Amino acid sequence: MTVKAIIHTASRVIKRITSDASPLLAADETAVLVASDFDLSGGPWKLAEDGVTKVAPTEADLDAAFTPPTTPELQNVLDLLATASTDAANSASTQAVFAALHEALKPRRVL
After folding, report:
1. What is the number of alpha carbons within 13 Å of residue 30 lying toward its C-beta?
2. If we measure between CA atoms, which residue out of 17, 15, 20 comes closest to residue 1?
C-alpha cells in the first residue's frame, strides 16, 4: 500500500496522511511518499528535506500551515478596526469595542 503525507508546501508541516492514489490537494499542499508505517503520534510534525525524518515545527511553521489566508475584504475591515481602535476622536470605550472586534475577526490557526 502506498502512503502519502500531505504537507504544506512552504513550511513542510504534515497536514495529514492518506493512502488515496490521487489525493485532493489544496493549492498550497504537496503529496510526498512516506513509509507505510509512518506515525504522526506526538505531533504535529514537519517533514525534513530528506522526506523521511519528522522534526518539530516552529510556531511560525504551524501558523503558515494552519492559518487560513485573509481575503482583501477582511483585511480592509481589520485595517479599519485597527485605525478606529486607536483614533483619539473615539472615546476609550469605543476604542475598546473596535479593538475587541479586531481581535475577534483576525485569522487564527485552525489545527
Report:
1. 13
2. 20
β-pair partners for 17: 5
pTM of the model as a whole: 0.75
Burial label, 10 (beta-carbon count in 10 A; 0-12, 13-18, 19+): exposed
Q: Strand pairing of 14-18 and 29-34?
A: unpaired
Closest CA to 95 of 77, 83, 105, 79: 83
Dist CA 94 CA 87 (whole Å):
10
The tens digit of pLDDT for each residue in 58-88 reads 999 999 999 988 999 999 999 999 999 999 9
